[in-house]
Design goal:
Number of helices: 14
CATH class of the largest domain: Alpha Beta
Bound molecules: D-mannose
Radius of gyration: 20 Å
CATH superfamily of the largest domain: Divalent-metal-dependent TIM barrel enzymes
Number of domains: 2
Structural class: alpha/beta
Strand order of the largest sheet: 1-2-3-4-7-8-9-12
Strand content: 5-15%
Largest sheet: 8 strands, parallel, barrel
CATH topology of the largest domain: TIM Barrel
């Protein structure tokens, strides 16, 4: 696989010169300064590409070219937004940037409740606490009938939390779930929003009554509209699985499991309609056999996210080691079947002072560097097996 790294643009504290020194070959980035829904002009695309190439690296993957909410819920302006999307794709194609990651998660991109959950060795990592998430849903958002979506054991844990929760704890949850994890991925809520919860409720309302089938129809509509442009310019679209891979906050989610992946690949049977194999997101659902999914979908995968989660008995989940045997299996599959496919690591621990640097949640420097070293080692070993 091609060793890539998610870099957040010229303002990123982790510079391209640093990345060259640690074995990174390709860059994964986005035009983060362009607001969601606006066209990426050829000039802006070429400027970013030249910046990366001037550092002897290449722009391997766009992550993400964000899909506007209105395209997802089928709003009145969706056709205009799809036209903008197609123009951006065409400009990327002209510039020769041909792998585009996106997601089709309504309102909330990836979800975590804790960003610095302490590990026994002194490092820390991301963590999803199901009871804290339920607290956010039932007590902070106050979503109607939200309790129905949680099992008794989770509601019991949630009640214990509720008994001791204070204002600072509530603020921390809001910050972690809908602000700090969302802004930097061009999500709906940014650090500058003064009333994030109110804004979030308004967004949720846009999806009221919407089913998985409705969302599927909108994804199909979007993919059918953009495939001709992808065909003309040789662009591979790769959807990121839902993280975690299940329905949350009453929202439909449609990239959660084997059947979902099969559905969207068959709904628009075009070689340019593909998958971002995020082993981490898929593994956050105990229903997914991630190594088996890798084998099944390797051919339709255009981008790999190398990390893996461990689901705990109470439904919480945490990031596991990049040397987890399941991840070794996944890396082996892609290294054998898709040797040149771009791969990046993420959600590695905060370590050796990473926590003081203000990096985006999940995107530490030392932690990711160690993870990339681990995955590179697995790749090297797999290549020895090939001989
Ligand atoms: C989180 C990321 C996601 C991902 C988007 C792709 O760490 O994996 O935010 O970039 O869902 O559209």
């Amino acid at each position: 696989m091609e060793k890539t790294w998610r870099w957040f643009g010229p303002g990123d504290k982790i510079t391209l010169d640093m990345l060259r020194q640690i074995g990174v070959e390709g860059i994964v980035t986005s035009l983060h300064h362009i607001p969601n829904g606006e066209v990426w002009s050829l000039a802006e695309v070429e400027k970013m590409k030249a910046f990366i190439e001037n550092h002897d690296l290449r722009w391997s993957v766009v992550e993400s070219l964000p899909v506007s909410e209105s395209i997802k819920y089928g709003g009145a302006d969706r056709d205009a937004l799809i036209e903008n999307y197609k123009t951006s794709l065409e400009n990327l194609g002209r510039a020769g940037v041909k792998t585009v990651c996106y997601n089709f998660m309504p309102v909330l991109d990836w979800a975590r409740t804790e960003l610095e959950y302490p590990n026994a060795d002194g490092t820390s990592n991301l963590y999803f606490n199901k009871a804290e998430f339920a607290y956010f849903d039932c007590h902070i958002l106050g979503r109607k009938n939200a309790e129905k979506d949680y099992d008794d054991a989770t509601l019991e844990r949630m009640q214990k939390l509720a008994d001791s929760m204070d204002e600072a704890g509530r603020r921390r949850l809001v910050d972690n779930i809908i602000v700090k994890t969302q802004g930097f991925v061009n999500g709906n809520i940014s650090e500058n929003d003064l009333k994030p919860v109110e804004k979030f409720r308004e967004l949720l309302a846009l999806y009221e009554g919407m089913t998985r089938d409705d969302l599927r129809a909108n994804m199909k509509y979007f993919l059918e509209a953009i495939m001709p442009v992808c065909g003309r310019w040789g662009i591979n679209m790769c959807v990121h699985p839902d993280d975690p891979p299940r329905q949350i906050l009453g929202l439909p989610r449609i990239v959660t499991c084997d059947e979902d992946i099969e559905w969207f690949l068959n709904a628009v049977p075009d070689e340019h309609n593909g998958l971002t194999f995020c082993a981490g997101s898929l593994s956050a659902g105990a229903h997914n056999d991630v190594p088996a999914l890798a084998r099944k979908y390797a051919r339709r995968t255009h981008f790999v996210h190398a990390r893996i989660c461990e689901v705990l008995p109470d439904g919480d989940f945490r990031e596991s080691s990049h040397l987890d045997p399941r991840l070794i299996d996944v890396v082996r599959t892609f290294e054998r079947e898709r040797p040149g496919v771009p791969m990046r690591v993420d959600h590695a621990p905060l370590m050796l002072g990473d926590d003081k640097m203000g990096y985006n949640a999940g995107y530490s420097f030392h932690g990711r560097m160690l993870a990339l070293g681990m995955v590179s080692g697995i790749m090297a070993a797999v290549n020895t097996e090939k001989l």
